[in-house]
Design brief:
Blueprint lengths: L1 H21 L6 H5 L9 H15 L33 H21 L5 E3 L8 E3 H27 L16 H22 L3
Antiparallel strand pairs: 1-2
Helix pairs in contact: 1-5, 3-4, 3-5
Length: 198
């Protein structure tokens, strides 16, 4: 039963990883790096962050160090340095790091039982966590950031959806999306006006 559960969890993690990476496809170096919201969220930074997450949480936490430096997570690193790419860090370098971190994570997941204990001292008073709980955590974090990437990509060039080609969105043309936008805007204004009397 544990193997079935592990396979299911790993499949969900892989789907999130794939959704994140395809958001970079077809974009310029500028567009994969540029911040589009006030907090600076950007596509390549999300990949860099999740590379650190996978390498650390499925690495040292379970006594299986990743083997490559992750200077952005050092205690003396600049705040948020794992959330953006410098001009000297290439897209290929960061995507390659993410892929290697995922391979390392998959090896850890395959090698250990779901009830194997790891240690994340900054999480809980005793720092203990099981592989099962860590898988659930990283799946949630990966999908959360894939959702961020979806919004960022839509702001950059209008492409949206969980999978290549949209997949989970209505197959509308631009005029249908404009009509939909207008309907939502009207409903929001109407609700705002009505709220005064609630």
């Amino acid at each position: 039963m544990d193997d079935v559960l592990k396979d299911d969890l790993t499949r969900h993690l892989t789907h999130g990883r794939d959704a994140l990476l395809w958001k970079l496809e077809g974009l310029s170096e500028y567009d994969v790096r540029r911040p589009v919201v006030r907090t600076g969220t950007n596509l390549l930074g999300l990949v860099k962050h999740l590379a650190c997450v996978e390498a650390s949480y499925f690495g040292a936490v379970f006594g299986r160090p990743f083997g490559e430096p992750l200077p952005w997570w050092d205690s003396d690193a600049d705040v948020n340095s794992d959330m953006w790419a410098t001009a000297q860090e290439s897209r290929d370098d960061i995507v390659g790091l993410y892929r290697r971190a995922c391979v390392h994570a998959d090896a850890t997941i395959a090698a250990l039982d779901l009830d194997t204990a790891g240690e994340v001292p900054w999480w809980t008073p005793d720092g203990r966590i099981t592989l099962h709980r860590m898988l659930v955590h990283v799946i949630a974090e990966t999908h959360r950031h894939a959702g961020h990437a979806d919004i960022v990509r839509e702001l950059v060039d209008g492409r949206a959806g969980f999978m290549r080609g949209g997949g989970n969105l209505p197959p509308w043309q631009q005029d249908a999306w404009s009509t939909h936008w207008d309907r939502l805007e009207d409903a929001a204004r109407e609700a705002d006006d009505a709220a005064a009397s609630w």
